[in-house]
From TrEMBL:
Membrane topology: Multi-pass membrane protein
TM region positions: 44-74, 86-105, 111-129, 141-162, 208-230, 236-256, 263-286, 292-312, 332-352, 367-388, 409-429, 435-459, 466-492, 523-543
Organism of provenance: Ardeacarus ardeae
UniProt keyword annotations, A-Z: Membrane, Mitochondrion, Transmembrane, Transmembrane helix
Role according to the record: Core subunit of the mitochondrial membrane respiratory chain NADH dehydrogenase (Complex I) that is believed to belong to the minimal assembly required for catalysis. Complex I functions in the transfer of electrons from NADH to the respiratory chain. The immediate electron acceptor for the enzyme is believed to be ubiquinone.
Molecular function GO terms recorded: NADH dehydrogenase (ubiquinone) activity; NADH dehydrogenase activity
Chemical reaction(s) catalysed: a ubiquinone + NADH + 5 H(+)(in) = a ubiquinol + NAD(+) + 4 H(+)(out)
Name used for this protein in its record: NADH:ubiquinone reductase (H(+)-translocating)
Length: 544
């Protein structure tokens, strides 16, 4: 079953890619469906263009790799149990929700894909059915529900003033609509201060994390900002400051985290800030290019991380990864993805990040240039830290255990690596002109890499308390949980629930329904002559 879905998504991926090449030379196509029910008419519009086809091709390709990898990683390929079917169905619904989000050009379809991603992500996070997974799932779904509320408010605002069907109407003069839509998008993309759900979502299985944190859930908000960038003309300045803060804090958190999967999640957080910052500066096509490249090398990073964790029997503590001294190929793919993450020359991430460095540092953006340079240093620093942990750390007490790689993990990583190599030069030289730089501009990237390496060794000198503060993301998660529980009114809520709410709340309604249900059962179980006596008695009383 997993192989079947893998082949189906591979087919859709190549088909979407070839169609994207065709649509790059032509305009977009709109497909509209009308549904009439009673006195209401609904229109569903699909938009097919170069951006949607290319992004859907990337989503389908990564989904096919994840489907193939999941069967071996979770040891459920050969036993088609109920858990395996449930996992397969949830993953498939995730991709279907992404399909509606990518191709929809009406609010009804857009909300279908948007809410579908939120619900299915909750089911994936709580897949292991333990307390930690459930708490992480609750935090994830509640935080995303905040963004959904903003999204629905913007929908209601548009419905009140304009039309709820078409999205190609200009809203340049509507600040409230743009602001609400922006809040919904940055919540789904885990921007500050809605970032606490992103590391909590790592409680999901590692193949799911590879799909969620590379090309689906976290990029949903970024894709909508790219798609409808003309709607955000009044809030670009807010979006730029929020994304810049997310870039800096995400890079800092990734440098000081201990949990290995959370380090990778924090790197995703900083890269999401970079994407939204690029759109806010007006370079939406460059952001789209980096989003595609990031999806490829980040999925390779997650899948290779899952292979290393699988050999360590599920251990996520980064201090134990030095035990895997003989695991060559997994560590090789892991290091290649880390080099792409830092933008090392001639790796995949270099082709998009080099353009960003040239634009943001040399176009006189003043204060933005300084913070962007700091972000680049942090990116190099946590990438070097990941390479040091996964490839160069000295063995620990797991070293007396013999580890060996499995071909089941090797083949999907190899296939993803080959696609990663072939895509870099193709996209860059096909769609972007050659940029000539002087000596200083060429040396700037090398200088940032050197400063990032020095920053990595500098951060190693700090003590535990400093690490603890920043690895907790300034206690964003704890504050989210405390406010969710209603800490300031908890005793009053408890007393109120035990008194009036016990009688008039859901428990009281349930008791009342149960009582009348039992009364009706007793009434209908009476013998016929007793029922006739009661009827005659009521008739006699009525006559009197």
């Amino acid at each position: 079953m997993y192989i079947f879905f893998c082949l189906i998504f591979i087919l859709f991926s190549f088909l979407s890619f070839f169609l994207s090449v065709v649509f790059f030379e032509f305009n977009s196509i709109f497909i509209e469906f009308h549904i009439s029910y009673c006195f209401s008419n609904l229109s569903f519009i699909f938009m097919i263009d170069f951006i949607s086809l290319l992004f859907f091709s990337c989503v389908c390709f990564i989904s096919s790799i994840v489907f193939f990898y999941s069967g071996f990683y979770m040891n459920i390929l050969l036993k088609e149990s109920s858990d395996s079917k449930r996992f397969l169905a949830i993953l498939f619904l995730f991709v279907v929700s992404m399909f509606f989000l990518i191709f929809s050009y009406s609010w009804t379809l857009l909300m279908l894909g948007w809410d579908g991603l939120g619900i299915v992500s909750f089911l994936l996070v709580i897949y292991y059915n333990d307390e930690k997974s459930f708490n992480s799932g609750i935090l994830t779904v509640f935080t995303n529900r905040i963004g959904d509320c903003f999204f629905i408010l913007s929908f209601m605002f548009m419905f009140y003033f304009m039309d709820y069907t078409y999205l190609f109407i200009s809203y340049e003069s509507c600040f409230v609509f743009s602001f609400l839509l922006m809040l919904g998008c940055i919540t789904k993309s885990a921007q500050i201060p809605f970032s606490s759900w992103l590391p909590a979502a790592m409680a999901a299985p590692t193949p799911v994390s590879s799909l969620v944190h590379s090309s689906t859930l976290v990029t949903a908000g970024v894709f909508l900002i790219i798609r409808f960038n003309y709607l955000f003309s009044n809030v670009w300045f807010i979006l730029s400051y929020v994304s810049l803060l997310t870039m800096i804090l995400g890079g800092l958190f990734a440098n000081l985290e201990v949990d290995f999967k959370k380090i990778v999640a924090m790197s995703t957080l900083s890269q999401l800030g970079l994407m939204i910052f690029s759109v806010s500066m007006g370079y939406w096509l460059l952001c789209f290019l980096h989003m595609l490249f990031h999806a490829l090398f980040k999925s390779l990073l997650f899948l290779s991380t899952g292979g290393l964790m699988h050999l360590l029997m599920g251990n996520q503590d980064s201090r134990f990864f030095g035990s895997l001294t003989n695991i060559f190929y997994s560590k090789l793919f892991f290091s290649i993805s880390c080099f792409s993450l830092m933008g090392f020359p001639f790796f995949l991430g270099f082709y998009s990040k080099d353009l960003m460095v040239g634009i943001f540092l040399l176009k006189n953006f003043e204060l933005f240039s300084l913070f962007f340079c700091l972000f680049c240093i942090f990116t190099v620093s946590y990438s070097i830290r990941l390479i040091f942990i996964g490839f160069m750390m000295f063995p620990s007490f797991y070293s007396f255990i013999s580890f060996s790689e499995k071909n089941n993990f090797f083949f999907p990583l190899l296939f993803l690596f080959l696609i990663l190599l072939s895509c870099s030069s193709f996209y860059f030289y096909s769609y972007f002109p050659l940029v000539l730089l002087n000596f200083f501009e060429s040396f700037l990237g090398v200088l940032i890499i050197i400063m990032g390496i020095l920053n990595f060794y500098f951060l190693k000198m700090f003590k535990y308390n400093f690490y603890f503060l920043f690895s907790k993301m300034f206690f964003f998660t704890e504050f989210s949980i405390l406010f969710g529980k209603g800490i300031f009114l908890s005793s009053y809520n408890y007393k109120f629930d035990l008194s009036w709410m016990e009688m008039f709340g859901s428990h009281g309604v349930k008791t009342l329904i149960y009582y009348y249900d039992m009364l009706l059962k007793k009434f209908f179980n009476l013998e016929l002559f007793i029922f006739l006596k009661i009827v005659l008695l009521f008739v006699f009383l009525f006559i009197l």
